[in-house]
Amino acid sequence: MKSPYAMILNVLAPLLSAEHQPGFLDITVPGDPHGLVLDQGAVLRRNLAIIDRDKSTGRPLAAVAAHSRPLISLAKQLGRTDNLFLSTVRSTESTTFYHASPVIFADLEVAALKSTLLTFDHLLQASHDRFTRHPQLEGVRDFVRQAVMARRLDPEGCHRFSLGQQYERMPMYQDLRQRIPHPLTPFEHILFVAGNTPCRCIDVVWIVLGFDPFGFRVCNNWRGSAFAFGAVNGVLSGTSFSEAVPLPPPDMFLCQPTKRRAFPELPFAEDEQQQAMDDVSSRRSQSFQEAVLYVEMHADESVIAKIVESSDCDATCDRQVGTQIFRRLKRLYGRRADTELFTKYFSGSFDRYTGDLRPEILSQAVSPEPGAVDWHSWLNVYRNCLGELRTQFGMPGDSFENRNVIRADPTGGRLVGDHPNVE
Question: In what order do the strands lie in the sheet with 36-39?
Answer without folding.
Answer: 25-26, 36-39, 42-45
